[in-house]
């Protein structure tokens, strides 16, 4: 009745109502086209669909680059991204928008999704109603070390997902809530990049450094996130970083590296809450985010490939980094609280962390001193964990994926 209509208008406003109406019309339009039209078109065996969180990146980007170079010209690659105009024209590749269009909704996205033989994702797959002939492979973005706060299930969103060794089959299936038979040990395409040589000029330009500098990449696990469901309630830091929780701590670190050839590159997670200290200028510290890497056309694992050491904590990036056989420092100052809050997929994950266990600032600076003096105290321990966590160390993960799924 008119009274309820007036209440809705007051609550949402006319603009809000029009946007809501537009959204529902687009949804119904897309349902019609996908259910009655696109699902009945023939599947293209040589169409491959990609999506990554952090557009055009991670395992999907590494696999795509390899396929584009090594598969025949009859293949077509479709990338779902936020803004297709940001990407150059590439051979046999089209970029389509993940955002609904007022006039055509998401028809283009569904047209290609319903017709591609293979669909590769790196995160939460939205394509749930696959056709029988299609294969959805969730490349994912690292083996499960951290627990899954809140819980979720991906059991109906892919046919296969990847890990680096059989050791992770049970933990990964538990983390994703899927059948263990869907978890296969082929390795990650991005890990192939760790063992390859690249032109360093773009990297040196990005970091404003030269070949004499020792690059230490710091990849902290996000504690305070823009996503409240996975933000740690117990944790507070003015910097958003572990251990170095105040702005003065960062300036102290910066001064420590004066007159050395050390440079720390802090890669901020895309879910990390924004912080003003990341906009400050430091002499020996670089703050990197996904936008900067994209601007310079550098993949994160290309940066790791050229690094001399890694600093992290509970992030599974260190499992991948074992392939580099370089020193690793683990900042574990909040280990007990983190275990109580989010938890881990293993009873005692510290046993799987071969490197310096950093609990206080003094430990942090001792680790940097060893890097400066080219001391490596944990080479033997890293090699033991490497054999457990990597089935292959040959930089051929992308080719194994092609062979396993008979993409030819």
Question: What attributes does this structure have?
Answer:
35% helix, single chain, 14 helices, 408 residues, alpha/beta, 6-stranded parallel sheet
Query: Roughly how many Å apart are the termini?
Result: 61 Å
Tell me the radius of gyration.
23 Å
The fraction of residues in strands falls at 15-25%
Stretches with pLDDT under 50, minimum 5 residues: none
Helix content: 25-40%
Order of helices and strands: HEHEEHEEEHEHHEHEEHHEHEHEHHH
Helical run tally: 14
Major beta sheet, specifics?
Answer: 7 strands, parallel
Strand pairing plus helix content: what structural class? Answer: alpha/beta
DSSP strand tally? 13
Task: Report strand order across the widest sheet.
Answer: 3-2-1-4-5-6-7
Explain how this protein is built.
With 408 residues, this protein is an alpha/beta fold. Helix content is 35%, strand content 15%. The protein is built from 14 helices and 13 strands. The strands form two sheets. The chain has a seven-stranded parallel beta sheet with strand order 3-2-1-4-5-6-7, sandwiched between helices. A six-stranded parallel beta sheet has the order 10-9-8-11-12-13. Strand 6 (160-163), helix 4 (169-176) and strand 7 (183-185) form a beta-alpha-beta unit. Helix 1 (2-36) runs parallel beside helix 3 (107-115). 33% of the residues are buried.
């Amino acid at each position: 009745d008119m009274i309820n209509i007036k209440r809705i208008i007051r609550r949402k406003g006319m603009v809000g109502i029009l946007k809501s109406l537009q959204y529902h019309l687009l949804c119904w339009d897309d349902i019609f086209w996908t259910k009655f039209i696109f699902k009945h078109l023939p599947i293209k065996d040589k169409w491959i669909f990609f999506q990554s969180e952090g557009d055009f990146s991670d395992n999907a980007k590494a696999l795509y680059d390899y396929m584009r170079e090594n598969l025949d010209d009859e293949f077509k690659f479709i990338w779902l991204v936020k803004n297709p105009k940001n990407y150059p024209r590439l051979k046999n590749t089209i970029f389509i928008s993940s955002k609904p269009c007022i006039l055509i909704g998401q028809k283009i996205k569904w047209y290609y999704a319903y017709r591609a033989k293979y669909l590769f994702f790196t995160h939460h797959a939205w394509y749930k109603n696959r056709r029988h002939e299609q294969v959805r492979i969730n490349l994912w973005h690292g083996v499960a070390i951290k627990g899954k706060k809140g819980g979720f299930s991906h059991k109906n969103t892919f046919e296969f997902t990847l890990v680096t060794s059989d050791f992770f089959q049970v933990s990964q299936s538990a983390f994703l809530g899927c059948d263990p038979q869907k978890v296969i040990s082929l390795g990650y395409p991005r890990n192939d990049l760790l063992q390859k040589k690249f032109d360093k000029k773009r990297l040196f330009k990005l970091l404003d450094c030269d070949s004499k500098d020792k690059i230490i990449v710091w990849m902290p696990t996000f504690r305070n996130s823009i996503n409240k469901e996975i933000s740690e309630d117990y944790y507070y830091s003015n910097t958003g970083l572990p251990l170095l929780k105040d702005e003065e701590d960062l300036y102290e670190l910066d001064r420590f590296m004066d007159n050395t050839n050390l440079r720390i590159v802090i890669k901020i997670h895309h879910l990390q809450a924004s912080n003003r200290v990341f906009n400050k200028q430091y002499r020996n510290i670089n703050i990197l985010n996904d936008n900067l890497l994209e601007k310079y056309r550098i993949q994160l694992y290309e940066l790791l490939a050229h690094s001399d050491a890694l600093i992290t904590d509970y992030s599974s990036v260190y499992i991948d980094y074992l392939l580099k056989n370089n020193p690793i420092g683990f900042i574990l100052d909040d280990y007990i609280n983190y275990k109580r809050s989010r938890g881990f997929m293993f009873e005692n994950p510290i046993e799987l962390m071969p490197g310096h266990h950093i609990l206080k600032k003094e430990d942090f600076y001792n680790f940097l001193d060893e890097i400066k003096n080219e001391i490596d105290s944990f080479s033997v321990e890293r090699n033991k964990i490497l054999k457990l966590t990597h089935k292959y160390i040959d930089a051929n993960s992308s080719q194994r994926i092609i062979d396993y799924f008979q993409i030819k």
